[in-house]
Amino acid sequence: MAVGLSDPDEILPVAGIKLASCAAGIKKNGKHDLVVIVVDEGATCAATFTQNAFCAAPVTLAKKHLSQNTPRALLINAGNANAGTGETGMQNAIQSCVWLSEKLQCLTDQVLPFSTGVIGEQLPMPVLNAGINQVVKNISEDSWLLAAKGIMTTDTVAKAISRTLVLDGQKITISGIAKGSGMICPDMATMLSFIATDANVETDFLQQCLSDVVEQSFNSITVDGDTSTNDACVLIATAKANNRQLNKASEDASLFVDELNEVCQFLAQAIIRDAEGATKFVTVTVSQAQSTAEAKNVAYTIAHSPLVKTALFASDPNWGRILAAVGRAGVEQLDINNVNLYLDDVCIVRNGSVADDYSEEKGQTVMNQEEITIRVELGGGNDSATIWTSDLSHEYVRINAEYRS
Amino acid sequence: MAVGLSDPDEILPVAGIKLASCAAGIKKNGKHDLVVIVVDEGATCAATFTQNAFCAAPVTLAKKHLSQNTPRALLINAGNANAGTGETGMQNAIQSCVWLSEKLQCLTDQVLPFSTGVIGEQLPMPVLNAGINQVVKNISEDSWLLAAKGIMTTDTVAKAISRTLVLDGQKITISGIAKGSGMICPDMATMLSFIATDANVETDFLQQCLSDVVEQSFNSITVDGDTSTNDACVLIATAKANNRQLNKASEDASLFVDELNEVCQFLAQAIIRDAEGATKFVTVTVSQAQSTAEAKNVAYTIAHSPLVKTALFASDPNWGRILAAVGRAGVEQLDINNVNLYLDDVCIVRNGSVADDYSEEKGQTVMNQEEITIRVELGGGNDSATIWTSDLSHEYVRINAEYRS
Q1: Within a 13 Å sphere around the CA of B287, how many CA atoms are in the beta-carbon half?
Q2: Average pLDDT, integer, range B191-203
């Protein structure tokens, strides 16, 4: 069902990373629901987490552990978000780290916990304990695809990608997995992404790379504006490749950032392509803004508009809805006589009014496509932003209305 | 189909106000689409307009005329919004005022024009001219209900109300009409409201009353966060009653404001009850906030969440979605351990975690109702806000996806 996306073929192993996945029984349907990612000593790690004030216990604990130590393992369960679970939830998150650290003979704070699934229910601890005992038996360098499937909740397609580059004559691999049906469901979906590279990267620079790249990928997608209590993205650099340690002064730093950006953009866009009920993959680009933040705000206002989204679903070139969204986005000193609007390369609005050469047929041709670009020129500055979104379909309402029934 | 709302019975005439409505032929379906409200000399007038930067030609012109003169007539057409229509649209708006002013023997800038309907199409000027010639023949003090029907677009129920009070021993009447299926459709719905009273009210105070009351009524409702290019609310005081002129220093000013508030809240809530596809009427109250703006922002974040709205449609007490919306509303220094959440009087979350005495059955009982109150206590201050919203149903998607097909 995903728009222009199918299951990935091959994911390259990353030296220093082993993974495993199993069906612990947290999900009721017998599918894989527990994943462990084991990291060799000597790695560096960066991470970004949800900004939601109601963040889940594992998010709070993962942040704490990351501030204290370098992770040796990531423990991810699907089927239960361990969110809204109070002090018991925190104790359960700690206990799960204790269990895995005993198996792997590392410290408790070298384990980062992640959970995704239903909010407000306690983790089934005996089931989780048995699952941890089982999953550690299967760890292997080649289990990336299994891990990508093990972290899925309502996803219909596994999301994974590998890229390679050369640094100091050394072949470098970046592999990543992600899950999420587009943040559309804070009690079920949750965006999680785990990325690893064998490059040797200095910690502060690794965090800077991740933060910059996330801003243009995972923080540039929306299905419905709902952000999860559990969102997280982790980037591990194992330093197994023999490149000189990369830092912000390195000449070829941008090579690494570019490939990392490719990985994150692919994974972020994959989440939108697989958004619940999505029938369209829509790029929204806003340019000639007074700041990047302004451009992104206008783009999100368009992307969040239920009216724009239902028009996209209907393949209806109903440009008045886009214009109305631009008009209410709160742009300071917006001169509507400078605003242009395009669907792909078709100019619909020029200088604030319908373009003389626009016809309904031209707009309809673009709207009939599965992939569409909405482009707005604000005529006020030189900054721009691009985000990706999906449409609002009957299927979206059905999935989200009927989920628990 | 409206939730708890049927067609109004009787609307009291207001001395100094005459109205008329006719089927001019702007709407294709033969329904009434042209309304004139004629105001006797000596009235005062206040108005609020859409904040959308892409406001329609009639909005720009109405603001200009109001700044120049006191209105003697309001000209309202449904079926065409005269928005996104450029210079031609402005000339057409001016011409329509010229035509009506000639008929009524007043000045052009004593006519305020209002349009609601499809964006991006020019007004059918010969049709409009013939309609104006026809409609002025029918003006009468008793045509409030006809006018309420004449301004409808996708509304299923006419929205009108009268209230009375006594000032200085004089009986005062306030009658008002509104249209809109909940701002859900900037190219079709548009919120318009016209209210008149026979009270004698000083102009500046009248504007202050209207602005204050609109903030708690028409600016406290949402279906989907989309605001129209044409929204307007006009309040006329004809001064035909023999009360001493009311101003902000008047002892009984609050009596007038209270009744005006009742009128506006009824009309605003009627728009939500009649929102396209609505099956629920939902009150969202946020208290213990650090400011009214913060409280309103949290309330709107909940009310705009497609996940909360689909859960409401499904009568699913899926409180995790409400909590997640509160968490991403950007409240500064939110301590989640102080947050309480109620559905009607059922406490779901106490101090940030599921309440001990909460059960799914209790939540389900409230959710099964047609009218529901979501109440959030932020535990951070003393300010509060209440807004009204509807759910997100299959019917919403169908109406907005299929409208032009």
Answers
A1: 8
A2: 94
What pLDDT, in 10s, does the model give residues A128-186?
A: 999 999 999 999 999 999 999 999 887 889 999 999 999 999 999 999 999 886 544 33
The pLDDT tens digits for A321-355 are: 898 889 888 898 899 889 999 999 999 999 988 89
| Nearest CA-CA partner of A318 in B118, B86, B115, B56 | B118
Instruction: Find residue B78's DSSP bridge partners.
Output: B116
For residue B404, what pLDDT is reported? 53
CA distance A323 to B119: 10
Q: Mark yes or no for CB contact A54/B326 under 8 Å.
A: yes
Does the distance separating the beta carbons of B53 and A310 come in below 8 Å? no
Question: Cβ contacts (< 8 Å) between B402 and chain A: which residues?
Answer: 314
* Residues with Cβ within 8 Å of residue A119, at least 6 apart in sequence: A56, A81, A83, A84, A186, A187, A229, B320, B323, B324
- Residue indicated by tokens 């216990």: A57
CA B402/CA B405 separation, integer angstroms: 5
Three-state secondary-structure class, residue B333 = coil
H helices of B199-349, in order, are 203-215, 253-273, 292-304, 306-313, 319-327
**ipTM metric:** 0.79
Query: Structural domain boundaries of chain A?
Result: 17-273, 281-389
Q: Which two tokens stand for residue B137?
A: 């023949």
Q: Element (H or E) spanning A224, and its range?
A: none
pLDDT exceeds cutoff 60 at A187: no
Contacts of B60 in chain A (CB under 8 A): none
How many CB atoms sit inside 10 A of residue A167's CB? 22
Q: Which chain A residue has the Cα nearest residue B53?
A: A327
Tokens encoding A243 = 């490149």
d(CA A245, CA B117): 63
Which amino acid would we find at residue A386? Answer: T
Q: Which backbone phi and psi does A288 adopt, to 5 degrees?
A: 60, 40
Look up residue B71 and give its two tokens: 């209105």
Active site residues of B: 190
Residue B181's pLDDT band, with cuts at 50, 70 and 90, is low
Q: Alpha carbon of A217 to those of A258, A262, A295, A309, B219: distances in Å?
A: 12, 9, 15, 20, 35
- Nearest neighbour of A224 by CB, restricted to B307, B316, B323: B307
Contact A324 B226 (CB under 8 A): yes
Rounded to whole angstroms, the Cα distance separating B16 from B42 reads: 9
Query: Which of B314, B324, B392 lies nearest to residue A226, judging by beta carbons?
Result: B324
All residues of chain B having their beta carbon less than 8 Å from the beta carbon of residue A349 are 84
In the predicted structure, residue A357 carries a pLDDT above the cut 90: yes
Question: Can you give the pLDDT at residue B189?
Answer: 47
* Residues of chain B found within 8 Å of residue A353, distances taken between Cβ atoms: 84-87
CATH of B17-273, one of 1.10.10.10, 2.60.120.280, 3.60.70.12, 3.40.50.2000: 3.60.70.12
Tokens 């003169």 identify what position?
B69
Q: Are A80 and A117 in contact (CB under 8 A)?
A: yes
Q: Among B74, B89, B88, B82, which Cα is nearest to B34's?
A: B74
Instruction: Write out pLDDT tens, residues B344-394.
Output: 999 999 998 889 899 989 999 999 999 999 999 999 999 999 999 999 888
* A118–B328 CB contact, under 8 Å: no
CA A352, A354, A357, A363 torsion-angle sign: positive
Does domain A281-389 sit in CATH 3.10.20.340? yes
Crossing angle for the helix pair B394-402 and A306-313, to the nearest 10 degrees: 70
Coil, strand or helix at A233: strand
